[in-house]
Every structure is written in structure tokens, then in C-alpha cells.
């Protein structure tokens, strides 16, 4: 028989509607300023702040509370260099033949290519691993959904803390588990360079979909 989990009072702060609207608007304005950065300064960042943001991400909900994630924080220059070289090898294969013409056409306005210097210049890399199951074979549920939510928490926390980020998904990403010596039950889910943007950093001028384009009310 399963053990019944003890309960505790919910720590919920009820605020008035005016404050709710102010908070919602403030967050929307702030998160809209978050942009993907590819030109990072080599200036060091406070690693304790990054750890706190990872701790915030680890508070995300997960299927059956299995918390099927591992966050590997990489600051070692040699490891970052190895990750860059391995990622660029995969990216060369991607741009040379794996990607469809449509995919390459969609990427072209963003100016991306197989060169990934940010994997070395960013002072921190966070590699998020999804745990297919627990170390002892314990079953995990809704792994992709759970880890995706945690990554959303992490990106928002890092932005809120004043740090720039990039979401990088070289495909395939098996090299990350090899380089970082992760166990067989973990697969790389997302690679996030973290740091300060270079002085005079620019980003593509893009448009977001309007709320009316993404919201359906019934």
C-alpha cells in the first residue's frame, strides 16, 4: 500500500485585484524584454546567483512529483571548449545536410550558422538533463512536460536576476552526457549559456504574435 503524504497549510498570498493587475503587467513587460543573446561578454557573473536561479527552477511542478531533472552548471574553461567543439561538429552536419531547405530558410533571417563561440565565451553553461527514470529504475511520468516547465522557470529566473541567456539545442546532444559523465538514465534536454551581453550587443528585430493570435476564449 502506498504511503499517504502528510499535508500542510497552503502558503498562499491573496492580493487585491489592483495589485494583481499591476504584477501581471509588470511581469509581462519585463519578460517581453528577454531576448536570446549570442554575443556574450567573458566577464564573470556571480555563480551563487545562478545557483539560486537553478534552485528556483527545481521548484517546478512535475509528474507525480518525481522531479525528473538534473542541472549541470559548467564554468570550467576546458569543459566549455570541449562542449563547443562537439556541438559545432553536430551543427556542421546539421547545416550541411540534416536540416531541410525549409528549416534553413526559416533560420536564415536570424543569421545563425554552425559557429557557436558563445559556448566558450559565456561564463556559465547550464545543461539540463531529463531523467527517463530514477537511478534505481523508478518510473518517471510526463518527463518532457515536467522538464520543459522547469526550463521555463529557469529562463524567467535568470532574466529576472539580470542575466542574459540562450536556448541551444544541438541535435543530437548525446555528446553532452559523454563529456559531463552523466548516467544512462539521463538525456540532454537543453543547453543554456548564461552571462552578460557584450557591449553594443544587437539582436534580430522580431515581432511577437499578438495576444489575439494565441489566445482562444470559450
Largest sheet: 4 strands, antiparallel
Class by alpha and beta content: alpha+beta
Distance between the termini: 42 Å
- CATH domain fold name: NADH Oxidase
DSSP, total strands: 4
Query: What's the structural domain tally?
Result: 1
Strand order of the largest sheet: 1-2-4-3
Low-confidence region ranges: none
Spatial extent as radius of gyration: 19 Å
Helicity, as a percent range: 40-55%
How would you spell out the order of helices and strands?
Answer: HHEHHHEHEHEH
CATH class: Alpha Beta
The global form is globular
Q: What proportion of the residues form beta strands (DSSP E)?
A: 5-15%
Describe this structure in words.
The protein is an alpha+beta fold and 218 residues long. The model has no long low-confidence stretch (mean pLDDT 95). The chain contains eight helices and four strands. The protein has a four-stranded antiparallel beta sheet with strand order 1-2-4-3. The protein has one domain: 3-Layer(aba) Sandwich (NADH Oxidase).
Q: Secondary-structure map with pairings?
A:
Layout: H1 17-32, H2 47-57, E1 69-74, H3 77-98, H4 101-107, H5 118-121, E2 124-131, H6 143-160, E3 164-165, H7 174-179, E4 186-195, H8 211-214
Antiparallel strand pairs: 1-2, 2-4, 3-4
Please sum up the structure shown.
This protein has helices at residues 17-32, 47-57, 77-98, 101-107, 118-121, 143-160, 174-179, 211-214; strands spanning 69-74, 124-131, 164-165, 186-195.
